[in-house]
Fold this sequence. Notes:
Elements: H1 2-21, H2 29-58, H3 62-88, H4 97-116
Helix pairs in contact: 1-2, 2-3, 2-4, 3-4
Amino acid sequence: MLVTGAVFGALAVMTGAFGAHALQGLLDERALAWYDTAVTYQARHAIALVACGLLAGRQPGRALTAAAVCLVLGTLVFSGSLYLMAFSGWTRAGMITPLGGALLITGWIALAVAAARLPAPGAHPASR
Length: 128
């Protein structure tokens, strides 16, 4: 989880810089907007994956694993479909973008469930 989040984060910085410097004038305004949205969501969900990894070190569980899987798949589908649209102009790829969004939402809900199951700071292990 930590490694994937860190890699997604590094890739988001690289794709963001690439978009800001190399794609201006190559892509039209609409394609640049898709690209920017893809980078933004990728970066935000990289941070969420890092949070999953940090929580997994404290208290692993199925909800946390489900959160990480949904966040990874959701990022790949959501941002991936927008990158595909931006570079190819193939707008039918946008038909799967909501599936990626649904996976991201599910990931956040699973992360909330996992976080709610964490013991309070300083709680005795028997009170879990």
